[in-house]
Amino acid sequence: MEQMNARAQRLGIPLGVQLDLTYRCNERCVHCYLDHDDHGEMTTAEITDLLDQLADAGTFFLNISGGEILLRKDLFPIVEYARAKSFCVKLKTNAMLIGGKEAKRIQDLGVDSVQISIYSHRPAVHDAITKVRGSLDRSIKAIRFLREQGLHVIIANVLMVQNFSDYPGVKSLAAELGVGLTIDPTITPMMDGNRKILDLNIDPKSLAEIFQDPTLLGDAPEVCTPPKGPDEDALNSTPCSAGHTAAYVSPYGDVYPCVQFPLPTGNVRRQKFLDIWRNSSGMNDVRSITLRDLPSCSACVHGGTCTRCPGLAYQEGNMRGPSLQDCEKSFARTGVPSENLKQKKLSPLELVQIHELVQIQA
Amino acid sequence: MSGKLYVARDSHVAARNLGGEMMVMSARNSTLYTLNPVATAIWEAADGVTPLDEIVANRICAQFDVAPEVALKDAETLVAELAGHGILVVSDRPIVRAAAATENSR
Fold first, then answer.
1. Interface of A with B (CB under 8 A)
2. Could you say which DSSP state residue A166 is in?
């Protein structure tokens, strides 16, 4: 896979594209960064034309997400078209609308994997986050249908103030269901720039406990060892695959380097995808950045090991600047503050904000 | 092996030609394969209804300057190996699928 990525980067191929089919959703998760109103989604014809263009551009991995993709009546024709174009198709869904019939169809179409968001093993906590009573039960039922078909299922557990202490329970649930698990403490700002939902981020002390949980870490000494600072290879490296081998397309045809990097680069309703990918000033600006070009991060001891997201940095005001959320993760992992944290003189032991559980809608 | 052989791309694979190299991934186990030029030529021609010996004669012998008997023997070994990995289907009769969409892997 590394070789494939390296080859795609050398050739400038958008190897992986996330395509959001809709921002409409049958849940109202408290941490969601999307505007759920339909402002004119791409039609089936526009989407299949886009898939033709992506196949011609060399895209291999197609992550189909939303919103809730099962709300698109044309979801299965779209997936069938994508599979006929030989994409490796991965679906992201809350799965509430997946029954036995849908699970079989997904299997028959040769979908690679299905990722499902589960916030807790406890219905009260999960349902309070999704704001849909019974949503956990429905999602788990769907997981069982998918597993009966032999599909590869991954639970995505986003951690926030309301649910972070439940991740061991989610881990056990994943093991019981025979599915994979990813855990992520990142809350993404709203796409319209509203950063209020970042209040849902876990406090630094609890974040440190999670990052140093030996049951979650692979090679704990390697992950938690204080860093030595970036070497030449790290300074010449690019931050991530966004704009290099990865891109994002919204339900309205907007193309961004990544779903978490809402820098407008073009719209496929007005321009060919490959034209945007190769020639837009936004994409080329993103591609020009190496660690060396980042004023504070290049001088930071975490420079070579940080999981800095340029999209979160962009949303903080500067795609060449630091991402505070990633500074906090580096500190939580190693106990060593980043250059950015030192400059901000933030205390690692801020007071924890108490949040009420959101009431479930009837 | 004796008699006609037919080969078809497995329905649960993803594939893309990445700068001249054919990458194939099986959805059954997410294993990624890189096909060499000969395997790529067979892969691209594996429509389920063209016999393997014709694929070899038209796509391999001409392009790679190899004798038909040698090429066919090697191709039979290759397709058996790819079938073992679950990315090709091999049969002694044409493989016809009900799927309406046409396949197009570049």
1. 1, 3-4, 7-8, 10-11, 13, 15, 55-56, 58-60, 80-81, 83-89, 110-113, 152
2. G
Taking CA atoms, A143 is separated from A99, A224, B45, in Å, by 9, 33, 37
Measure CA A254 to chain center: 17
Instruction: Tokens for B71, please give them.
Output: 């090429």
CB contact (8 A) between residue B106 and residue A84: no
Pairwise CB contact (< 8 Å): B101 & A84: yes
Each residue of A176-216: pLDDT tens digit? 999 999 999 999 888 888 889 999 999 989 998 888 888 88
Distances (CA, A) of A198 to A159, A193, A209: 12, 11, 19
Q: What is the mean pLDDT of each run of 10 residues along chain A (362 residues)?
A: 89 97 97 94 98 97 98 98 97 98 97 97 98 98 98 97 96 97 91 89 90 76 74 87 96 96 96 98 95 89 88 92 90 89 64 40 42
Distance (Å, rounded) from C-alpha A285 to C-alpha A273?
17
Residue-wise burial string across A260-296, b where 16 or more C-beta atoms lie within 10 A, e elsewhere: bbbbebbebeebbbeebbeebebbeebeebebeebeb
Euclidean distance between CA atoms B31 and A163, whole angstroms: 34
Structure-block tokens of residue A331: 């500190």
Query: Does ipTM top 0.90?
Result: no
What is the nearest CA distance from A110 to chain B, expressed in angstroms? Answer: 4
3-state helix, strand, coil in chain B (%, to 5): 35, 25, 35
- The Cα angle at residue A268 between residues A267 and A269, in degrees rounded to 5: 90
**φ, ψ of residue B17 in degrees (nearest 5):** -85, 115
Say if residues A67 and A75 touch (Cβ distance below 8 Å).
no
Residue B101 to residue A83, Cβ atoms within 8 A: yes
